[in-house]
């Protein structure tokens, strides 16, 4: 049984679909109620709950829904994220706080309520971070800070809750999702920025959401039973270019 946040688009949606194809029971989370309900209806054994992952009560409710409907919690897959574009001079305090709330505080909040149940099942947490944890980009201060924080928090949680819970992060590079194209708006020529990112990867292509979903499935499976506290890059080799 798995909670998937950020499930209404991009990588989160692909992860939800991949997990469902392997027989997972799902509680899906996102802001877009219409998209979330449509996704839940398209997948077996799935329910959707709309809300703001930056709010404690909503995270508590996600866990309660999992236990009430399915009786257990085995996996938490955290994918919610926003960009918070703008340099530190231009960036409003409100957008800075919302970006850290969505990208970082949400991990703390869902972990707070999920960990007691995950310990019972020897479960796992998978955090969708970013290569922005390691590589900086213009006009992304809140995003880069939040993703670096997500990796640091993952490592701390892995130490704190071993050996009962495995906790890892994936760090995608340029993946062809709406978030990537929104991120490109930070550059003078967005289409050129995306094309340059594609050419810079060693594999000469953008990642696809399914690429991320395939790695996510491996990391939450028993085939990865000796992997914890790891931030695994999946970037077409762009950090080595």
Automatic annotation (TrEMBL):
EC numbers on record: 1.1.1.-
UniProt entry keywords in alphabetical sequence: Oxidoreductase
Origin: domain of life: Bacteria
The keyword Oxidoreductase belongs to this UniProt entry's keyword annotation: yes
MF-aspect GO terms: oxidoreductase activity
Matching InterPro entries: NAD(P)-bd_dom_sf, Sc_DH/Rdtase_CS, SDR_fam
Enzyme kind, highest EC tier: oxidoreductase
Family of the protein in this entry: Belongs to the short-chain dehydrogenases/reductases (SDR) family.
Protein name: SDR family NAD(P)-dependent oxidoreductase
């Amino acid at each position: 049984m798995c909670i998937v946040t950020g499930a209404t688009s991009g990588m989160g949606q692909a992860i939800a679909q991949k997990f469902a194809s392997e027989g997972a029971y799902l509680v899906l989370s996102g802001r877009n109620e219409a998209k979330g309900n449509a996704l839940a209806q398209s997948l077996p054994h799935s329910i959707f709950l709309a809300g703001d992952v930056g709010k404690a009560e909503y995270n508590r409710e996600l866990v309660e829904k999992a236990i009430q409907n399915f009786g257990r919690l085995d996996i938490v897959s955290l994918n919610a994220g926003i960009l918070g574009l703008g340099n530190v001079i231009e960036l409003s305090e409100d957008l800075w706080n919302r970006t850290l709330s969505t990208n970082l505080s949400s991990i703390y909040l869902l972990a707070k309520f999920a960990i007691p149940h995950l310990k019972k099942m020897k479960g796992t947490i998978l955090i969708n971070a970013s290569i922005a944890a390691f590589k900086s980009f213009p006009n992304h201060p809140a995003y880069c800070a939040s993703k670096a924080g997500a990796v640091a928090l993952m490592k701390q949680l892995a130490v704190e809750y071993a050996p009962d819970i495995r906790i890892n992060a994936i760090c995608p590079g340029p993946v062809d999702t709406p978030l990537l194209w929104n991120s490109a708006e930070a550059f003078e020529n967005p289409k050129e920025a995306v094309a340059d990112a594609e050419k810079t990867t060693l594999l000469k292509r953008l990642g696809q959401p399914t690429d991320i979903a395939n790695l996510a499935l491996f990391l939450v499976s028993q085939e990865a039973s000796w992997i914890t506290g790891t931030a695994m890059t999946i970037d077409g080799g762009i950090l080595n270019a």
